[in-house]
């Protein structure tokens, strides 16, 4: 039998059912891995005691035949999901020590299905970033290294801690949130699979908001099937979130039939951007061939407004964020500067509490909404957003799903791209359009570059059609046979 | 478009973020660059296009008018930096 | 007639627009399930949503929407079946989200018009610009500590309707009449209890002055005007302040000012210096609010008769004066009471009794109509006794006082005390004969031409009968006897 931390969720569930091991043993193996990999800084708060307690109850439930869909599965939770009685920071100083008195709907659903929480993972502050370097609690280190080079690489962001933890086999799966690519890009950088469902599929209640019209919870795991299992547990209508859809949740894993005969896959021509690394376009081409070999037809489609997606995103997301982050004012929770004047208290609390990138985005958002600029920036961006959304809907009249690269590069070194915010923003060039259109998207590890770093391919689907996304992703996964393991994991003594 | 220091200062004040002169100087070119970047949207013809605020295609369900929440002042005040007698406490507001 | 302010350079016209915040009568908040009851211990009626805890989201209360539509219909206004919630961004300790969820470009109710009754008996139409739904803020307590402000969020998130008028109001009297009329309509509709002491209704008053015929002047928005008296006082103060400023060669600043009900003055609000950049944008946590016109039509079917309709009906059907009708319709319960009293009875007499006697005695005893010991049916029965000559109007007043203190019916009191009016001509004739016999001098004087003495004889007869003699019969018989 392989190591417990090597298992997929699906096989661990079988193992638990077969009494090959207990949930406590499974939790303990992952708690040990968490300790071994503490240098990755993937967690802001580790909760081994909670994990063991939950695992004990899980074993009891399984013994009495009451096991839930994810019973005993150790997960990591992005520290953007509020967890009752457990510090939740959004990786910001302004929430240091904040203990929610409530449980987010997504985590509650996972716990209701028996999942075990190992801890709260690191992220870019308030999910604003693509490299996990904006966290007040330090950056996360990608478990992957370039071949023959020990330079620390970024896991991507914002859900960098979750992606790194899954890749380093600290946990079997993790939650993430994706606003402009925050699940798909780190999944690509860390060589794992990450899924962002349709906007409205998962409740946002209890998840700290970055940009309300874009934020969507999603999943990380080491297989497409595991993502499907996690997403099924997390999804569903929540009357506490007015943007959560009252739609039934399909058995996503059941869609993984491997049969994509007759499916039409669109290849958006605007994604062939200038300066795309040769390895990435080659991988993309391989992906096209895999899908064709499995019986799908591929066609070129056009998404004419793709070029404007980033600019649209960098108006809308900061605008919403500037307002969403107004509640961090030192009055009811979180950090407060000790000042005797109210305005000083507000301004210094927020100056001390927020990091550079968050301040930058609040400033941009405030500016874009301020009088005299609202129409030129905000309303204009919303109009272009409609055009972008319509591009996708027209494309989906001709095809069932789209295949694109996930990110324009593999993982880069920590500190790289920091000199210029725009350069950092370009990381999301392939993920942002689907976010603006609220579409489901998944990143599957499909190969490695010359430096031995993972590269992902992205499948984007119609609204509410996660099943096709999973189905196509499953085929890519099968044919890519991505079997690489991060060096950090390989180098461990017990391997 | 480039932002001058006064505009950056005004935005910082609207956003209630204290910034030193040095920070304003540093922020100025960064914001200008981002604003310059997003200004490419002006190229897009959006005549007769309605703004899209939210993509989700649902009619939200409304709440019934029943009292089923609140009544837990202790939870509300649990994380308060300063509180007394059930109130949050802040530096005096001068009207 | 517009009320003018006299300045050194002549008369100035006051131009007023009002924004009335009315708390909607409902059990729970606009976007959360916390209670809206007044007077609870601090922060006990606060949900996680009302405290704007991280990750909390608003969910709209459907009853608020219905109440807003009802109110819009009651204000004769356009109902918008598509409206949008927007965030109004500003920082304040009792505004937990750092923004107020309100409506900006697309309110639920658009233009309309209502009629106000002026003290001189005239009516005037005032335009309604819009009505929108929004959240209330919490309460800041400034007087408990020298250096601190205390914050209670119980009111945070309560549902308000902001009713905005056109600048059609031209003086303190019109402003108070407008506010009273809005209050009356909302109370009729049962969409707001109108309780100004508890803050259920608050007004912001936009005031500017101009020379008659000139373009609109710069306005100041006065906040915290929370009684009819304050409306009047603040307009008088602010109009004078603006006229003095302009006449001194200075400019009126467009600003938010606060009414100080102790010092009786307005002053600039430092805390509102960002007031002109609220950065409104559609709330991405809430989708646009849409409903069907057929639902609006259904609500329309359930509207009660509104004050103005009722007033006109009372004037037409019951032959009441505009004044009497206005007094009676001021409260829906009062109008209902009156109609019960007046049913199949002398409608004018009923109006007199309700307005002069009943409301008078209630006021003297500090009681509301709901607490009246005399039911409408009982008062109606009393009036019936007057109309059918069972008792005289004078006796009726005594009976009424007795009814008020004992709660007994008029008939019982009349019976017990033997107050029944004497209409038997024989009995009256006997009394008249006695009176004439007792006053031979006056009889002689009357017959000698002193006509005025007729009243004296009537008085004597009434006195002897202890007020029970029917005055008409007394008159007629006396005339006959005295020739
Ligand atoms: Mg106002
Ligand atoms: Zn208002």
Chain-wise SSE layout:
The complex is a heterotrimer of chains A (495), B (95) and C (483).
Chain A: H1 9-17, H2 23-36, E1 43-46, H3 48-63, E2 74-78, H4 105-112, E3 116-121, H5 160-167, E4 173-178, H6 184-190, E5 193-196, E6 216-221, H7 224-234, E7 264-268, H8 278-293, E8 297-301, H9 309-324, H10 342-353, H11 356-369, H12 374-395, E9 401-405, H13 421-425, H14 432-436, E10 441-448, E11 454-461, H15 466-480, H16 487-490
Parallel strand pairs in A: 2-3, 2-4, 7-8, 7-9
Antiparallel strand pairs in A: 1-3, 4-6, 5-6, 5-10, 9-11, 10-11
Helix pairs in contact in A: 2-3, 5-6, 9-11, 9-12
Chain B: H1 5-14, H2 21-38, H3 73-77, E1 83-84, E2 87-91
Antiparallel strand pairs in B: 1-2
Chain C: E1 4-7, E2 10-23, H1 62-74, E3 82-83, E4 85-89, E5 99-103, E6 112-117, E7 123-135, E8 139-141, E9 148-152, E10 159-165, H2 172-189, E11 201-210, E12 220-225, H3 228-247, E13 256-260, E14 265-268, E15 281-282, E16 289-290, H4 293-301, H5 307-317, H6 322-329, H7 332-342, H8 347-364, H9 376-387, H10 393-406, H11 410-417, H12 425-438, H13 440-447, H14 453-464, H15 471-482
Parallel strand pairs in C: 12-13
Antiparallel strand pairs in C: 1-2, 2-10, 2-11, 3-16, 4-5, 4-15, 6-7, 7-10, 8-9, 11-12, 13-14
The structure holds magnesium ion and zinc ion.
Residues 19, 204 of chain C line the site of magnesium ion.
